[in-house]
Amino acid sequence: MLTNYYFEQFKKIVYDNTGITIPDNKKYFLEIRIKEHMLELGIDSLKDYLVMLKTDKMVLKEFISKVTVNETYFYREFFHLKALAYLVQTENLGSPIRVLSIPSSTGEEPYSIAIVLKEVLGFRPFSITAVDIDINALKKAKEGLYNYRSVSKLPEAYLNKYFDIIDNNTFKIKDNIKKYVKFYEGNILDERFIKSLGKFQYIFCKNLLIYFDRPAKIKAVNNLYDILVGGGYLFLGHAESLSGISSLFEPVKINDAIVYKKPIKEEEDEFF
Ligand SMILES: C[S@@+](CC[C@H](N)C(=O)[O-])C[C@H]1O[C@@H](n2cnc3c(N)ncnc32)[C@H](O)[C@@H]1O
Fold first, then answer.
1. DSSP class of residue 202?
2. Is the CB of 138 under 6 A from ligand 1?
3. Can you spell out the DSSP letters for 54-92?
4. How many domains does the chain have?
5. pTM above 0.90?
6. Is there an atom of ligand 1 within 6 Å of 188 CB?
7. What atom in ligand 1 is closest to the CA of residue 73?
8. Hey, which of 129, 133, 210, 234 would you mutate to test ligand 1's pocket, going by the most ligand atoms within 8 Å of its Cβ?
9. Average pLDDT in the 168-172 region?
10. Is residue 255 part of a domain?
11. Last residue in a domain, options 38, 67, 96
12. What is the best residue among 102, 132, 138 to mutate for testing ligand 1's pocket, by most ligand atoms within 8 Å of CB?
C-alpha cells in the first residue's frame, strides 16, 4: 500500500515531467504500475526506487511509459479527419502541408491523417510530424503493427490498400503511408522542443488536455499557438475545449466538428 507521503512524491514526479495530474481515485492504478516496475528492476524498497527515478533518466522514461494512457485507434473521431479533408481542399495555407499529431501515442492517429491526406491530395506534398512522451508507444508506432481492434473502424478498401495483412489479427502499415510520418519523443510542455519542430498548418492535439490541470493546459495551448501558421487550425478531442484556457483562437464549426482557427495577423495578410 502506498502511503500518502509516497503517493504525493510519485504524483509530483509524474506532474513535473509530463503535466499529467493523477487524481486521488487513481492511487491503486499508480500502485500497480509502480509494483510492476520495481519487480522488473529487482528493487523492493520504495525509497530506493524514488532515488532511481530521480537519478536515472532511462528508469524515469520507463516509469512515465507505465503511467501514460495510450488508448487510441485508427479513424477515432472520424468527424475531425473529415473536417481536415474539407479544409485542405477548400483553403490554401501554403505548400507543403505540414500536420502535427501530438500526442501520437502508438501511431494510429498520424497514420489515419496520412491515409486521409493521401486520398484527397494525391501527389500534392504533405508530411506529418508525430510526437509523444512515451518511448514504448513510439517504438510500437514506428514498428507499425496493429491488431484487429485498432483497425476495425477503417474502411476495408483502405485496409487492403495501406496494410500488409499478416493474419486476421495482425496488420502492418505499408511504406506507402509510413513514409509520410516522422516520429519524435518529446513533451508538449517543453517550449524549446516544440519550437524546434517548425510551423504547421494543422495541429491535432487530441485526448491529452483531459489529463492536465489548467496551468498545464494553458502552457500546452500557448506552445501550440506559437507553431501554428496564421489561418491554421488546432483540433482537440471531443471532450476538450479552449473555454477558460485561451481566447486567442476562433472556434469554427465544420459539419460535426469544432476546430480552432488561429487568426491571420495584418502583417501576415499583406503577403497574400
Ligand atoms: C490517450 S492518448 C491520445 C492519442 C491520440 N491523440 C488519440 O486521441 O487517439 C494520450 C497520449 O498522450 C501522451 N502524453 C502524455 N503526456 C504527454 C506530454 N506531456 N507530451 C506529449 N505526450 C504526452 C501519452 O504518452 C499518450 O500516448
1. E
2. no
3. HH-HHHHHHHHHHHS-----TTTTHHHHHHHHHHHHH--
4. 2
5. yes
6. yes
7. 9
8. 133
9. 97
10. yes
11. 67
12. 132
